[in-house]
Design goal:
With 321 residues, this protein is of the alpha/beta class. The chain has two domains: 204 residues, 3-Layer(aba) Sandwich (Rossmann fold); 84 residues, UDP-galactose 4-epimerase, domain 1. It is built from twelve helices and 13 strands. Bound molecules: NADP nicotinamide-adenine-dinucleotide phosphate (NAP) and ligand G4F.
Amino acid sequence: MDILITGINGQDGSYLAELLLGLGHNVHGILRRNSQSENQTSRIEHIRHKLQLYYGDLTDFASLITALKKAEPQLVFNLAAQSHVKISFEQPVYTMQATGVGFLNLAEAVRIVNPGIKIFQASSSEMFGNSIDADGFQRETTAFAPVSPYGIAKLMAHQTAINYRDSYGMFVTCGIFFNHESPRRGTNFLTNKVCKTAVEIAAGKADQLVLGNLHSHRDWGYSKDYVKAMLALMELDKPTDAICATGLTHSVGDVVDHVFGRLKLSREKHLRTDKKFERPTEIMSLCGDSSKLRKLTGWKPEVTFEEMLDEMIAHWQKELK
Ligand code: NAP
Ligand code: G4F
């Protein structure tokens, strides 16, 4: 198949491209122009020669039409977004344009070019805000109540996906993804910030890890596991919405304790908090029930929270050498 990925140079986009190439598909991707051209392909340099890439942006409707016409895909995975929650408070308008209206641009471009193209939308557990079922889980039936511009933008995209499914009979599937990480995670997200800084401290190249809220809980999975779920969802006969999560939750402090424990660092000496890393509003606990996804596709997470953090630590130790 010809498959188009928006956000192909992101964490998930790069792993999904590897997975699809391995299965023999023709993989196309949309790249954003950067004044340092190496940054445009920083996560896909190793597979770049196998990809067909087009400059584009979710906020640029014409570029989406052009990419769809050139790639002639059967599937489109929309993984592009301004995906950082804290930054969405600093750039709320851009986040709405890229993450919310950007998906509308893509859905409309697909409807115009070829409504038979199947779309995957990367929805987010941020859409739940602090909604939580009595047993401590979020599931497909839990009410959405986002508390960040990013969460609101993702909810706009999510509802648009459902509307295109209902109004036009288009195949638009949403994976409601909980946090997932890897060595390719941006280093301004919690897990990779902790791993990278802790390795630097252990090597004597930094002294302190400075974080915001240590008490929020997240359901942290592994990116390579989650891109398999995206593909499994797109292989179903009918479009749907399904949660992808591990079903286990850990606090920010737990992440620090695991990483500091591995590197024999003391919290007292090397950990500090600063309000500048806190958000105006915070989600206190995310823990996803992914029974629907598991039942429909047989998917289950393969890498544990601890194994994933160990892989991220090893990555930074190698980089530092
Ligand atoms: P990521 O590493 O931040 O990657 C996002 C990608 O989107 C990057 O390649 C970025 O381009 C591109 N992008 C940003 N704005 C764009 C725009 N206006 N037009 C076109 N491309 C744009 O995110 P990720 O972790 O791979 O996540 C993939 C998707 O899943 C995102 O939609 C995210 O919101 C969603 N999601 C992620 C998680 C998670 O925990 N990772 C959980 C739930 C949902 P550059 O490479 O040029 O920066
Ligand atoms: O790693 P984070 O920035 O991820 P967050 O905000 O949960 O969002 C991620 O997951 C969402 C799915 O739920 C995605 F949709 C979204 O695109 C993104 O991938 O922060 C995790 C937790 C938060 O509670 C945050 O307040 O860590 C806390 N935290 C504490 N100190 C910090 C820091 N987060 C960051 N990024 N940096 C800190 O210094």
